[in-house]
């Protein structure tokens, strides 16, 4: 929500302007002295300032306003400032416009003209800032990508860029890495990036999903087994640690490893030594371990399901992957990757970006496959992705119920940040909504 600072020593002016802008869904901050105004600009995110030119009784020179203007510009050179002037300060206001003021309006002002000027200046500022930010991000990403192996990862968001940069950085060492995140968020892809950018890039890279194996086979899968070690073991079996010797082993869904397997895993991480099932011969390997989980391992430790000493062995460095709903900028690039020759309607783009994607990238990929099969030609609309069904499952919460952080984030996206609309959706006042947004750290 756009935030406007109004600076005037006249309470009637502050009240009148505040009411005007709040009715048009702006957030208003008031200041009656230059000192208060400086503090607000210094410590709050302000999108536009409307300031008077005089703040002391019987003063009409405009010198106070001029001094304040330059102080605010020193704090934030890009901040749009509209000057409210009386006829005596008109010449000075014009000189300040030449010095960088966004506009000036004479008192009494015209509401419509003021609203148009404010809307245009805020939109212009956002476009300029977005353009500069995108340009900086693209330059940084291009420089980063030149020297990094990204293993086909598709992303555009700042959140994912940070995770990738961390993965490439830790790849240069041999420390154990724990990749955490929800199912389908890209944990295996990050493990591939770590391995591809490490000094072990040309060495074995072995993957094992601990969550896909029965408990009685996990140890044999990791450490191997001699013939006859268990029912059905008709021949000697080489374990994944032996296969990965000299390279990297990726252990997915590590939280599903039984306690007996955890004890053996801890030993091999500490000493590099293990025995195959059914054997007393100690073997030694040199393996870098990257593990991943969607579980809350600290909760499992508290419940006695996961060894604390193993957790700290695996988690020398943790890379947390955000859910797809937390990196909306990645959605359309991913769709373009999954459907490279297809065109989306604007409705489809908005629906795809508004959906919460509880299954993350895997769910998005499946939705794209569905759309491509059911409608092989022509523009793709939201219904082609099955989003009408999805929307029904994630309908807005019933009014009066306390919304979750995820519901608030989704509503803010759907309503394009208009506080009044979001508040109506949840059946609460704007002040109550502000408190919840601040509570969850949601920017508005």
UniProtKB/TrEMBL annotation:
Give start and end of each Sigma-54 factor interaction domain.
Answer: 153-373
4-aspartylphosphate, modified sites: 52
Q: What highest taxon heads this organism's lineage?
A: Bacteria
Key word Transcription present in the record? yes
Q: Which InterPro entries match?
A: AAA+_ATPase (IPR003593), AAA_lid_NorR (IPR058031), CheY-like_superfamily (IPR011006), Homeodomain-like_sf (IPR009057), HTH_Fis (IPR002197), P-loop_NTPase (IPR027417), Sig_transdc_resp-reg_receiver (IPR001789), Sigma_54_int (IPR002078)
Q: Does the keyword NAD apply?
A: no
The alphabetized UniProt keywords are: ATP-binding, DNA-binding, Nucleotide-binding, Phosphoprotein, Transcription, Transcription regulation
List each copy of the Response regulatory domain by range: 3-122
Pfam families assigned:
AAA_lid_14, HTH_8, Response_reg, Sigma54_activat
Q: Which PANTHER family match?
A: TRANSCRIPTIONAL REGULATORY PROTEIN, TWO COMPONENT SIGNAL TRANSDUCTION SYSTEM SIGMA54-DEPENDENT RESPONSE REGULATOR FIS FAMILY
Which named protein is this? Sigma-54 dependent transcriptional regulator
